[in-house]
Design a protein that fits this description.
Number of helices: 10
Strand content: 15-25%
CATH class of the largest domain: Alpha Beta
Structural class: alpha/beta
Largest sheet: 10 strands, mixed
Distance between the termini: 35 Å
CATH topology of the largest domain: TIM Barrel
Number of strands: 18
Order of helices and strands: EHEHEHEHEHEHEHEHEHEHEEEEEEEE
Shape: elongated
Number of domains: 2
Helix content: 25-40%
CATH superfamily of the largest domain: Alanine racemase
Length: 404
């Protein structure tokens, strides 16, 4: 299987700060600024706090410039959703484990994952998917997670609108998995950017109920993702509150220490470790045109229900050629991207410095989640440049952190 290169990283691009990036490159294309030290700090926090195994959700940001610091910090398990992601992990990190946790796959994908890549862990929420797994793999040595639907109004995106079995279906699936010789397990997802730790408690109660009704032995419960990033203006509890809620439901009689816990964090690990440097290319009054937009790094912000604000800094070249941050009075702008499509517009206005002009740069912080992962090549404007910021002693020749 051929792979599209995950990044366009210039190994010489190693910088001490965002100002240094702009001053050195004067970038006129969107540029992702990766801070491996921040990425690794989030991994350390999660590995120390979560009472189980941590599977990074590759879909959130598949760039190897991001994956490598996560791996260096101790991530050895990955939640993958496609053969392309399976191949990426298997080829780059041969000693890592991959779990194919999307509840359905294209025809033939289960066979390829099983026979070519050695995948043994799958997820289902229907009998059709379960039959497909057994038909394509033969069923030997499998652990199959039944994905449960959850109801959570405290998440930015309710993923149960697409995935998840109701309790009656889940009971039936668990019994069929056990009867066919595979190891039954459970998984759920409380929704992306969940700001209520109790959502995990409620989902854990559903797990307990369907396990009791199915009367099967459960070895693993995967609590999925949903762990939030503290975007400006949000009411985000600390991660430790989520860990305590999850540990509390495991301590119930049915889910004691003998049951393994998995988690699939994405946003919580990578959002804060990557920022985006975009440039102003045109201004018409309070209409601002950037070299990145709705078809690029800001696609998630435009999704229905999204409530994402980014920390923002503006930069300008002064009369002596130095790059300096500036602020002052602000105003609300309607923001457009660079493509020829009139739909390339951010849904809500952005509050930015009032005197922005063509050639200024804006750094959007906390852009590590669902930015480059969502970006398209529409009109030829794919954001694809990555640079790395870190102390010189932390960077090797490839621009990745080698020590903290």
């Amino acid at each position: 299987m051929s792979l599209v290169p995950a990044t366009h990283l210039d190994p010489s691009r190693r910088f001490s700060s965002v100002e240094h990036v702009i001053e050195s490159l004067r970038p006129n294309a969107p540029t992702y600024v990766v801070q491996p030290k921040l990425l690794q700090a989030k991994v350390t926090e999660f590995l120390r706090g979560f009472p189980g195994w941590t599977l990074y959700a590759v879909k959130c940001n598949p760039s190897t410039v991001v994956l490598d610091p996560l791996y260096a910090a101790g991530i050895r398990d990955f939640d993958v959703a496609s053969l392309e992601e399976v191949a990426l992990i298997r080829q780059r990190y041969p000693d890592a484990s991959a779990y194919l946790m999307a509840p359905f796959q294209p025809v033939g994908a289960y066979e390829t994952a099983y026979r070519e890549f050695g995948i043994r862990d799958f997820a289902v929420d229907t009998e059709d998917a379960l039959d497909a797994i057994f038909d394509e793999t033969g069923g030997e040595g499998l652990t199959i997670f039944v994905r449960l639907a959850t109801d959570n109004d405290d998440a930015m995106f309710d993923l149960s609108s697409k995935f998840g079995a109701d309790r009656k279906t889940a009971v039936r699936l668990l019994q069929q998995i056990a009867a066919r010789g595979a190891m039954p397990a459970l998984t759920f997802h409380v929704g992306s950017q969940c700001e209520d730790p109790a959502a995990f408690t409620r989902a854990g109660e559903i797990c307990e109920d369907v396990t009791r009704q199915a009367n099967v032995s459960i070895q693993t419960v995967d609590v999925g993702g949903g762990f939030p990033c503290p975007y400006p203006g949000g009411q985000t509890p600390p991660l430790d509150d989520y860990f305590k809620a999850i540990e509390a439901f495991r301590e119930k009689q049915m889910f004691g220490p003998a049951v393994d816990l998995f988690a699939e964090p994405g946003r919580a690990l990578v959002a804060e470790g990557v920022s985006l440097v975009a440039q102003v290319i045109l201004r018409k009054g309070n209409q601002l045109y950037l070299n990145d937009g709705a078809y690029g790094s800001f696609m998630e912000r435009n999704l229905e229900g999204a409530a994402i604000n980014y920390p923002i800094r503006a930069f300008r070249e002064n009369a002596t050629g130095e790059i300096r941050a500036f602020n002052g009075p602000t105003t609300d702008y309607t923001v457009f991207g660079p493509t020829c499509d009139s739909c390339d517009q951010l849904n809500d206005t952005m509050t930015l410095p009032a005197d922005l002009k063509r050639g200024d740069w804006i750094e959007f912080g906390m852009m590590g989640a669902y930015s480059n992962a969502y970006a398209s090549n529409f009109n030829g404007y794919l954001p694809k440049s990555f640079v790395v910021v870190g102390d010189p002693e932390e960077l090797d020749a490839a621009g990745t952190v080698v020590a903290l």
